[in-house]
Specification:
This protein has a two-stranded antiparallel ribbon with strand order 1-2. Helices cover about 0% and strands about 15% of the residues. With about 60 residues, it is an all-beta fold. The chain is elongated.
């Protein structure tokens, strides 16, 4: 087949920055990043979803 596809490809030198909007909340204290062979990989763990709960109310 020989086709190559990229999710995002950028070639540049020097310093740069990129800002993205995430579709959900993440645990900011658990974010990690690694750069290997020119590929930046980010791990952004989601914040645990708050589940509804029942609270029993006592009556007198």
């Amino acid at each position: 087949d020989g086709k190559i596809s990229y999710h995002r490809r950028e070639i540049d030198s020097g310093s740069f920055n990129r800002a993205v909007t995430l579709p959900c909340r993440v645990q900011t204290d658990a974010i990690s990043a690694r750069l290997h062979n020119g590929i930046l990989t980010l791990d952004l763990p989601k914040v645990a979803e708050v589940k509804p709960r029942s609270i029993r109310i006592a009556t007198s």
